[in-house]
Amino acid sequence: GCETLIEKGLVKVNGKVASIGCTVSLEDKVEYQNKLIKPKEIPLKVIILNKPPGVLSSNAREKKLPIVFDYLPKNFNQREWISIGRLDINTSGLMLFTNDGVFANYCMHPSNQFDREYLVSALGDFDHDKQKKMKQGIEIDGVIHKFSDIVEGEKTGANQWFSVCLTSGKNREVRKIFEAVNLTVSRLKRVRYGPIFLPSTLTEGKFQELSENEIDDIKKYGK
After folding, report:
1. Alpha-carbon torsion 185, 172, 166, 193, what sign?
2. Catalytic position from the list 70, 88, 115, 217
3. Is 88 annotated in the active site?
């Protein structure tokens, strides 16, 4: 309906007849039939989802697999939620979503160095030399990958738990670093993104809206 009005030349932006596809900000002056249209400010919303394994971090379906948007609030059209980063299909844990594209870009931009923390269960022998390599950086396919921190955890049978942190969100980066030192990841879960931790009370497949204070913490977190 809006596009029809624009095509009829009834909408102006900053005094000029608008065209299909033009973008506006809150600073622009938009008129319909010479009447000023006041923008409706949409409050910034951020939600966290405890993503189950086996779910795609995508809004496009593949082979009828579930997608993360299936788990988000139904009062929003899925296109209105913007994913802040992704997790691969077999990784579970914390994902953030927002209704503000600028905020999403701020959280994901490498210059702001939002660190991510993961719990990892891996098979294989681990020693100090491997830990050193994983923190100093390992070249994989011409790209340096590294953890900012890695802490050994409990060992259960052939599996050992680790807590790892990194400031980049490259595809399958955690798994690639472990594979590079002959460790096989059997379970991977993200538990923190910047200042936001995955609540222990938030079960898999459930979401929770962040408070204004939590959103303010994110705004202050970027470098």
Report:
1. negative
2. 88
3. yes
